[in-house]
Amino acid sequence: MSPKKWYAVHSFAGFYFGWLMLLVCLSGTLAVVSHEIEYLSDAKFRASGEAGPVPWAQLQAQLDRDYAGYQILALEVPDQPYLAGEISLVRQDEFLFVYFDRASGQLTGDGQWGRLSRYLRNLHMYLSMDDVGKVLVTALSFLLAALLISSFYVYKQWWKGVLKWPGRLTLQKRTHWSDWHKWLGACSWPFVLLITLTGLWYFSEFWLLRLKVEHYPTVPKLSQSADPAAVLSLSELMQKAQRAAPWLDIRAINFPTQASAAVMISGQDGNPLYRNRANRLYLHPNSGELLQTQRQSDLAVVATMVDIADPLHFGSFAGLGVKLLYLLFGLALSFLVASGLWLHRLRTKRQQPELYKWYGLHGALCMALVLLALGLTTVNFSQREIERLPYSPVLG
User: Fold this and answer.
1) How many other CB atoms are found less than 10 A from the CB of residue 266?
2) For the chain, what is the radius of gyration of the CA atoms?
3) In a domain, 14, yes or no
4) Sign (positive or negative) of CA dihedral 55, 57, 58, 63
5) Residue 341 half-sphere exposure, CB side, CA atoms within 13 Å?
6) Angle subtended at Cα 237 by Cα 231 and Cα 238, rounded to the nearest 5 degrees
7) In terms of residue numbers, what domain contains 250?
8) Does any domain span residue 253?
């Protein structure tokens, strides 16, 4: 194709869905450091910063003392030691997060389902629109791919522009915006490529799940239903898990919500590029018997993609420094989208000075979708329905 046609592709991909792409990029960028923002906002999200095994017995004793009558649904130890771990508790139709210090086992506070990280997660993942929103968000990766590929044809000899500082930025000066747009695009294209590829994977994974295509190891079922009155406690299950798999750095436990399901314990096995759920132990809820083991080294290619996509997409695999780097490049990507919209406006405002006509019907629909997503997320992000109570002991 000619450079003019490539430019038309670039303009189409960045303009017609620009506001929606900006919303998804910006919410994803903030989601990368959402837990750190919560850390700064409230002491209950903070831990001592010391690593090491969690004193499960002490944590269990405090939960029995302070949250009698609740049941544990799940527990998660964050990868970053400065962040507090979280325990999901339920009682009838009530949900509660309890936070703890991983080194001492001391409780640091509690809170509801709705919080900043949940708001950004719901907005970024599916616009609070369930499957329709999931398809819309992941399909934007095709537009990102079009923008990335066309940019190399639109911006000739782009590699020379990396070393050329774009200088000052003036609101109404199109050449200034163009210089910054090109420079940030040239500097951040590897990051955009990574986000595009993982986004394309999320789109594919959605349809694998939707069409029920087997692509991940199956979960074991109990031969006989578990006795809800005889389910082992958190500390007992963790002791059995540590004895059964001393290689596993335990990071999470999920109690079953069905009588035929096992307790799932997950964690790390030396490669942080895999999320915790890549390594799993399935234990019998009553006896603690090891039913099945899953290790990251045994996963097939597609299953491996399932477990490395999130760390690569959100930069959660190597500490705060990498998160901040993702934040920087995420802001650059958001600026690329916003500056592309503004460049289009500056280039065409003489032919179409009226803003509403310039953006057109498609723009109005896109903006309406953005406002709808923000509204739905604001209304719904703090709601959590308890469909089934877990098979776990009543605390206290």
Assistant:
1) 21
2) 24
3) no
4) positive
5) 17
6) 160
7) 228-298
8) yes
- Cα–Cα distance, 161 to 270 (Å, whole number): 39
- pTM of the predicted protein model: 0.93
What is the CATH number for 266? 3.10.450
Find the largest Cα–Cα distance for the chain: 75
Are residues 395 and 67 in contact, defined by beta-carbon separation less than 8 angstroms? yes
Residue at 39: amino acid letter = Y
Cα–Cα–Cα angle for 392, 393, 396, nearest 5°? 145
Q: Which residues, 6+ apart, have CB-to-CB distance to 111 below 8 Å?
A: 44, 96, 97, 99
Please, are residues 98 and 67 in contact by the beta-carbon 8 Å criterion? yes
Residue identified by tokens 């929606």 is 20
Burial 27-37 (b: 16+ CB within 10 A, else e): bbbbbbbbbbb
165 part of a folded domain: no
Q: What's the domain count of the chain?
A: 1
In a domain, 252, yes or no: yes
The pair of three-digit structure tokens given for residue 223, joined into one six-digit string:
């031969």
Read off the DSSP letter of residue 83. Answer: B
Q: For 247, which DSSP code?
A: T
How many Å apart are CA 268 and CA 273, to the nearest integer?
10
Q: pLDDT tens digits, residue range 62-119?
A: 999 999 999 999 999 999 999 999 999 999 889 999 999 999 999 999 999 999 999 9
